[in-house]
Design goal:
The protein is an alpha/beta fold. Helices cover 51% and strands 15% of the residues. It has helices at 3-10, 14-22, 42-47, 62-79, 100-107, 119-122, 127-135, 151-170, 174-192, and strands at 30-31, 37-38, 49-56, 83-91, 113-116, 140-143. Helix 1 packs across helix 2 (14-22) and helix 8 runs antiparallel to helix 9.
């Protein structure tokens, strides 16, 4: 907004607004190349403060993959004009709703836009609820790459779901049942990839 709009919005005279600007009391205000005073909208300004969230499932090379993903998203954010206020990376399943670092990130109030590489980096299910929840609070989610079909992550999440259901169905005996079901999933995936070892 310009200085006149700022004055109207705050119920003051233009001269009072000018005095505030000259005293440096209007955060982010600047003079453009033709001399107009421009005041950024605080809400729009907050949306440029980004929180980067990266996640990979447990598995081989998880730390290398996680660091690479975090770097890619941070680079994308800066390239697209965001200020990275916070960057969080964690190892865990996309179906786990008790991720400690994500929980702490969502409680912070120093960012306006949450940036993830793919939807399922945030959550395997219920992504649109996250979006709605954040939008109701004046925030937003940006997904760098809308296309994602990482079979390894899908298999890891399926195994996490199996363990969760076995825990509910079988209690303390869950590990044996979960191991059996996990072997079935892993064998099916190996057969699909041509890695079958018929014993």
């Amino acid at each position: 907004m310009n200085l006149s709009e700022y004055a109207r919005k705050h119920g003051i005279q233009y001269r009072a607004a000018w005095n505030r600007y000259k005293a440096g009391k209007i955060k982010g205000a600047y003079q453009d190349e033709v001399g107009h005073i421009i005041i950024p909208d605080p809400e729009e300004n907050m949306l440029m403060d980004a929180a980067v969230y990266s996640r990979v499932p447990d598995g081989p090379k998880r730390h290398t993959r996680l660091a690479a993903q975090q770097e890619r998203v941070e680079r994308w954010a800066v390239k697209n004009g965001y200020r990275v206020a916070v960057s969080v990376a964690e190892v865990g399943s996309g179906v786990n709703d008790k991720r400690r670092k994500l929980t702490a990130l969502l409680k912070r109030d120093d960012w306006g836009t949450l940036i993830v590489e793919h939807k399922d980096r945030l959550t395997r299910f219920g992504f649109n609820w996250f979006r709605l929840f954040l939008e109701q609070r004046g925030r937003r989610i940006v997904v760098v790459n809308e296309n994602d079909n990482d079979r390894a992550d899908l298999v890891a999440d399926l195994i996490a779901i199996i363990y969760s259901f076995c825990a509910r169905l079988y209690g303390q005996r869950r590990s044996e049942h979960a191991k059996k079901m996990t072997r079935v999933v892993e064998q099916a995936e190996a057969e699909r990839n041509g890695e079958v070892n018929h014993e």
